[in-house]
Design goal:
alpha+beta; DNA binding; four-stranded antiparallel sheet; Alpha-Beta Plaits; single chain; two-stranded antiparallel sheet; about 130 residues
Amino acid sequence: MRQFDTNNHSVFLLTYHLVLVTKYRRQVIDDTIAVRIREIGETIGKNHHVIFLEYNHDRDHIHILFKTHPNTVLSKYINAFKSASSRLIKKEFPQVRQQLWKECFWSQSYCLLTTGGATLEILKKYIESQGEKR
């Protein structure tokens, strides 16, 4: 059964899948750096009502499954996360600068997907059936 979140005026379940890729797809993310990236993302997430549900990485990208509130501006969270993690990773792990000679750690683009449990077809049928007598 799904666990819904609430606030004073609404009930919601908002989950997203975020993929961030390193600049030039450089393979600079090891396990230690990945742990630090997660810590930064979760810390910044507290200010944006973002809670990590799952996190994993490869050498050139990360995946985050997270939930959030309806009033969260996702682009502000993602930009704050990318900016802070880029700055801190390059400062704390100087070897990264050798492979990323410019200022950016992350690619400018990102992939953000909603993760609703029902398919669009099921939702369309549900909405179409409203008001029908059974």
